[in-house]
């Protein structure tokens, strides 16, 4: 299984404990309204994020640009959804780096791991280190820069699925 999705991170509404669901519902409604007719489906909340499924014929760049303009959106991550197994994650990261438009250039990279599913067999640090090795095997001319990388590999591991992105659009 491998699907194109968009992950939305949002701001302080996640801090509003008693009324959080009201703010999330309003943000979901605003995203649905803004993205209507752009091939988006399955709007779902995931522990401080919103996952939006996109159809194969959707223009992901257009969808991301529109989503980034919705009030409350902090970041938009065009992502690939894979199974939450080490093999699926490492394989998809390798594939994404092989296809990355900056692959032939001397760039820096970093791996950011977000692991809401704490039962995943590897700790966040280990995932980041091991995926860094995967990236360096494919792009040995790249160097590691965790502070301000040219290419950031973002891996978010949930129990049901893992989401991998190499782009973040600010909201």
Walk me through what this model shows.
The chain has 171 residues and is α+β, with helices and mostly antiparallel strands. It is 31% helix and 32% strand. The protein has helices at 20-35, 60-68, 86-98, 124-138; strands at residues 2-10, 40-46, 49-54, 73-82, 108-114, 143-144, 151-157, 162-165, 169-170. Helix 3 (86-98) packs parallel to helix 4. The two termini are 29 Å apart. The mean pLDDT is 92.
Secondary structure elements and pairings:
Layout: E1 2-10, H1 20-35, E2 40-46, E3 49-54, H2 60-68, E4 73-82, H3 86-98, E5 108-114, H4 124-138, E6 143-144, E7 151-157, E8 162-165, E9 169-170
Parallel strand pairs: 5-6, 5-7
Antiparallel strand pairs: 1-3, 1-4, 2-3, 4-8, 4-9, 7-8
Helix pairs in contact: 3-4
- Individual helix count: 4
How many strand elements? 9
Low-pLDDT parts are none
Distance between the termini: 29 Å
Key features of this structure:
single chain; 171 residues; alpha+beta; nine-stranded mixed sheet
């Amino acid at each position: 299984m491998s699907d194109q999705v968009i992950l939305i991170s949002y701001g302080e509404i996640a801090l509003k404990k008693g009324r959080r669901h009201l703010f999330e519902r309003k943000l979901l409604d605003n995203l649905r309204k803004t993205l209507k007719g752009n091939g988006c489906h399955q709007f779902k909340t995931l522990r401080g994020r919103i996952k939006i499924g996109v159809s194969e014929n959707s223009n992901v760049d257009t969808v991301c640009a529109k989503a980034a303009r919705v009030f409350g959106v902090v970041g938009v991550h065009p992502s690939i959804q894979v199974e939450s197994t080490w093999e699926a994650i490492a394989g998809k990261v390798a594939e994404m780096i092989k296809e990355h438009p900056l692959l032939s250039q001397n760039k820096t990279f970093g791996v950011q791991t977000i692991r809401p599913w704490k039962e995943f067999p590897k700790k966040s640090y280990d995932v980041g280190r091991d995926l860094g090795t995967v990236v360096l095997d494919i792009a040995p001319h790249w160097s590691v820069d965790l502070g301000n990388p040219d290419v950031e590999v973002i891996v978010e591991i949930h129990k049901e699925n893992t989401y991998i992105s190499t782009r973040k659009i600010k909201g």
